[in-house]
Design goal:
Helices cover 15% and strands 37% of the residues. It contains three helices and twelve strands, in the order αααββββββββββββ. It has helices spanning 4-17, 22-37, 48-53, and strands spanning 63-70, 75-81, 86-91, 96-113, 131-132, 138-143, 147-150, 156-158, 165-182, 193-198, 210-216, 224-226. Strands 1, 2, 3, 4, 5, 6, 7, 8, 9, 10, 11 and 12 form a twelve-stranded mixed beta sheet that branches. α1 (4-17) packs antiparallel against α2 (22-37).
C-alpha cells in the first residue's frame, strides 16, 4: 500500500496535470488538500530535534530545505524554520500552493495581489530557491488577517489570485511545514520569486485593506541550508 506522502504526490500530479480542465480541477484540488490535511511529521520521518542536534551551531541557517519530489509540474518540499526565524515576504506568481504544518506553530501573514503589475525582469542577483531581487518596483495588495497554524490544523492554500504573497514565521520554537507548489518556480522569467516589504514597514497597514508592497533585494539575514529527505520512497505511478 502506498504511503500517505506518496499518495499526496500522486494526487498533486493528477490535480495539476489537469489544471486546464475546470470541471475536474476543483474536485482534484479538494482531494489533494484533504490528503495534505492528514500529514504529520511521522509520515515523512521528520524529527526536528535530531536534525538540529546534528548541525554545528556556527553553521546553523534560519531555514532548512528538504526536497521531497520535484519535476516540471510540481515541487513538494519541507521547510524547517528555526526558532524565531522566518521566510521573508515573497510571492508565488501564477501558482497554486498548499502548506501543511507538520511540527510546531507558524504565523502566516498573507496578501492578495490587487493587480498583476507587469514589470520587466532585470534581477540584480539570484538567491537560493530561485528568489530574485528587483529595484524600485511595487505591488498593490490586500493585507489578509494574520493566522497562527500548528500541526493539528488543516492545510492552508494559495491560488494565482488569492493569498499569493506571504511571510511565514516560527512561533515559540522551531516549526516545519510541507509545501506543494505548481507550477514550480523558475530561475528567470515570470515565475521567478521576489521579496517584498510593506511600504510603511515600520508601521504596518491594517488588515483587510489595500496596501503597497515594495520589491526588495534578498534579505541578507535569510538563507537556507539543505537536508536529505529520509521519508518513504516516492514512486510515481501514472494514473
Amino acid at each position: 500500500m502506498a504511503s500517505l506522502i506518496e499518495r499526496v504526490v500522486r494526487q498533486a500530479l493528477r490535480t495539476f496535470s489537469q489544471r486546464q480542465k475546470s470541471n475536474v480541477f476543483d474536485e482534484n484540488f479538494e482531494k489533494l488538500k484533504a490528503l495534505a490535511d492528514q500529514l504529520t511529521a511521522a509520515d515523512v520521518k521528520l524529527n526536528i530535534d535530531n536534525l538540529q542536534a546534528a548541525k554545528p551551531v556556527r553553521y546553523e541557517s534560519p531555514v532548512t530545505y528538504i526536497s521531497v519530489y520535484e519535476d516540471a509540474l510540481v515541487t513538494v518540499s519541507i521547510f524547517i524554520v528555526k526558532s524565531g526565524e522566518k521566510l521573508p515576504l515573497h510571492d508565488h506568481p501564477h501558482m497554486y500552493g498548499i502548506l501543511k504544518v507538520i511540527a510546531g506553530t507558524v504565523k502566516i501573514q498573507s496578501y492578495t495581489a490587487v493587480s498583476n503589475n507587469a514589470f520587466a525582469e532585470s534581477p540584480s542577483s539570484v538567491g537560493r530557491l530561485f528568489c530574485q531581487t528587483s529595484k524600485s518596483r511595487t505591488q498593490r495588495a490586500i493585507k489578509m488577517p494574520e493566522v497562527l497554524v500548528n500541526a493539528n490544523d488543516g492545510a492552508c492554500f494559495l491560488t494565482p489570485s488569492e493569498r499569493n504573497l506571504h511571510e511565514i514565521q516560527s512561533v515559540d520554537g522551531p516549526a516545519a511545514f510541507l509545501d506543494i507548489l505548481s507550477p514550480p518556480y523558475v530561475e528567470i522569467g515570470e515565475r521567478s520569486c521576489h521579496y517584498f516589504k510593506e511600504e510603511n514597514g515600520d508601521v504596518p497597514g491594517p488588515v483587510s485593506s489595500e496596501t503597497r508592497l515594495i520589491h526588495i533585494p534578498s534579505p541578507p539575514e535569510y538563507w537556507n541550508d539543505v537536508a536529505t529527505y529520509e521519508g518513504p520512497t516516492i514512486r510515481y505511478l501514472a494514473s
